[in-house]
Amino acid sequence: MTGPDGYISPDWYGDRAQVPTWNYVAVHLRGTLHPLPDEALRASLEALTEMFETRLLPKPPWTLDKTPEEVQARLMRMIRPFRFDVAEVDGTWKLAQNKTTQARLSAASHLSGAQIGQETALLAALMMGVEDGE
Do residues 4 and 42 both lie within one domain? Predict the structure, then answer.
């Protein structure tokens, strides 16, 4: 799973010896997928939908019941429920933590407006929060 990422111009560090780079946050999960019985699908979809729809309040929540039965039946044939048992989590990040505070903050301030990547404002905020030597 990838998080925020973005292009970093060498000019933003204020050091002519730099080259272009890409900063990022990523998490890799390893484990075992277990197929669940088809009967578990509806409850799983309803739980996920409720979780995400409540984040959109005050919008009236969408529910599976708003979908015609024939559409539900077709969708249920195309989706399979699984449980994922996570055995290992590997996180990695490149946030210019090896740069000076001044260079890192300069790059972060430019990155937040550049929008070359995903969630560049979040990536810039993470870069600004790095402690020296991390």
Answer: no
44 & 14 share domain: no
Q: Quick one: pLDDT at residue 132?
A: 64
Cα(76)–Cα(38) distance, integer angstroms: 8
pTM of whole model > 0.70? no
Q: Which two tokens stand for residue 33?
A: 């997928």
Are 27 and 55 in the same domain? no
HSE toward the beta carbon, residue 46, CA cutoff 13 A: 9
pLDDT at 125 over 90: yes
Domain membership of residue 110 as a residue range: 1-31+88-134
Element (H, E) at 29: strand 21-35
